[in-house]
Amino acid sequence: MGNLLRKAYIRTFIQPLVKRKPDLILSHILQQKGYDRWQNQHVSGEQHLVETVLNKINPRVCVDVGANVGAYSKLLLQATQAKVFAFEPLPSSYETLSGLTDTFDGRFVPIEKGVGERNERRLIHYSDSALSHASFSEEVKNVPFVVNDLSQEVEVTTLDTFFHGQPDVTGIDLIKIDTEGYEYEVLSGSKRIIRELRPKLIQIEFNIHHLFREKSLYSFARLLEGYEVFQLLPDRLEKRDPKSPYSNIYIFSNFVFIRDDIVNVIGY
Description:
With 268 residues, this protein is α/β, with parallel strands linked by helices. The protein folds into 2 domains: 1-33; 40-263, Vaccinia Virus protein VP39 (Rossmann fold). The protein is built from 13 helices and 11 strands. It has helices at 2-20, 22-33, 41-44, 46-53, 71-79, 91-98, 101-104, 159-164, 183-188, 191-196, 209-212, 217-223, 260-263, and strands spanning 61-65, 83-87, 108-111, 114-115, 120-126, 150-157, 174-177, 201-206, 227-233, 236-240, 253-259. Strands 3-2-1-7-8-11-9-10 form an 8-stranded mixed sheet. A 3-stranded mixed sheet has the order 4-6-5. Helix 1 crosses helix 2 (22-33) and helix 4 (46-53) packs parallel to helix 5. It is globular and about 65 Å long. GO terms for molecular function: methyltransferase activity. Keywords: Methyltransferase, Transferase.
């Protein structure tokens, strides 16, 4: 009887709604899976990752690549006792970011540089009205909501180069990368520290930008052997298979790669 009622309910209510509003239904399903959750740090799952998951490993060193004006760095500094290295190449964003040293002096190290796969001077494309969309990638001009009409040459380093000059750093607990489509290059310039310093967690933002740069979640997973992939949700992490098409949807989302031996430590 229960099965008959279920079928009748689906036929009477669900199927007509799907036929009338397929995009609405799909959008809702994708949000439940962790996509299109950009509104704030709670909705994106970043707050849960930092306050609940990261704190289980008592982080000492965290890295914020693409720090913008410092929202993520501030979350790290307030929720943990870690030392935070934050990279931001745009002078206007860096000025705001560096203000965090007034409150967290001694634990916060802002660096006015971009991060990529090599040490160089490079054009960054941006808009004064949306500095968080700034990117080294010219392909992001294909993203409908991005209008980067300005450009400026800035200094770019690699994480390998930077941390070679930080002998006191013997391990990294978290690397967060939000570089508007340039995440793959950041990781490509971090192969030595990934091998030697063995970051416990590596968070990346994944979006439509990567479609135009011909990168998939699987592309990142191939760079990060020895890590398991999880998608961020407001109150939990969900394990994902990077080879699955359902994990390679080009809509805003955040994924965290967790080192194999740390997965059980944090309860996943």
